[in-house]
Every structure is written in C-alpha cells, then in structure tokens.
Hints:
Layout: H1 3-23, H2 27-49, H3 52-68, H4 79-110, H5 119-135, H6 140-148, H7 154-161, H8 165-190
Helix pairs in contact: 1-2, 2-3, 2-4, 3-4, 4-8, 5-8, 6-8, 7-8
Amino acid sequence: MTDGALVGEAHDDAVTVLARRLVSGDPDGLAEVFDRWSALVHTYALRALGDSHDAEEVTQQVFIAAWRSRHTLTPSPGALPGWLIGIARHKVADRRAERARDVRRSVAVVAAAPDRDGEDADLAERLVVRQAVEEMADPRGTILRLAFWDDLTHIQIAERTELPLGTVKSHLRRGLIELHRRLEEVRDGSS
C-alpha cells in the first residue's frame, strides 16, 4: 500500500465520521461541514444564479435544510458533498422559480389596465397604488417607496434601511402581491 492510499483512506474515514456526527445531531459537526463545503455550495449557487446575494442566501438555506434533513444522509466517503450539492440544486431551482414569480407579479402590477378611456383610468390606478403604499406599515411601505419612487435597487434599499437583503426582497414581494390585489379590486369594481 502506498502513502497516498493511506492518506485517501484517512480522508474518506474522516468524511464518514463527520457525516455520522451530522446525522447524530452534533452542532459542531454541522459547523465543520459548513466550514469544509460552504465554498463549494456557494460557488455552485453563484454559477447557477449569477447573483452573489442570491448565492449567499441559497448557501445558507442549503445548510439549514441539511441540518433539518440530516436523518436522510447515509454516511459514506462520497455521500456528504454530493448530498449537499443535491440540496443546493433544489434550492437553486426554488430561487429561479421565485424569480419567475416575482417577474410575473411585477409585470401584473405595472401593466396598464385594458384600454378604458385612457388618462382617467390610469390616474385612478396611480392614486390607488399611492394610497395603498402609504397605508402599508413600515418597513414594507418605506421599502416600496424607496423601490418605486426613489428607484433604488434591492441592495441600496437594504443599505439605507439597514435590513438584510432577503428581508427587503420579501417585503417587496409581499407588497407587490398586496398592490396587485388592491388593483384587481379597483378594476373589478369599475367594470
């Protein structure tokens, strides 16, 4: 047996022991797994999504999901990194689907109403949107005003409000849903 084979076997054994620690619920084991494979997961997510903030969010979600579903891992030398990448694939797919939903919702809110006597309908909808945003509790109302009236990016809003980027995105998404619902009520009432 060569020294390289012994090193490889020791590495495999160490990974298997670490996987067993994770499965048994050892929080220090999770910390070691994170330290060892978070760069791999982050790189995969960044390449798949093309956005560093989304990649950071996905990386965090992967390790939370790994902790919650640790009982599904069968400890073996190659299983742990492959299992983490499998979770990452699902989280990336979820994020892509979320992006698509966000785009559809944004288009629905921003899209003009069917052609109805032009300016009066547009003015009424703008007033409804402004009133709905003004009535929203903070921080959601502030976040929507910064996004639409001040034309700030998600990152700029997070910096200005000192909120995590994921929180800003969640408030924007929920705010857009609320605006869409309010506009539909107005449109249904005027038909």
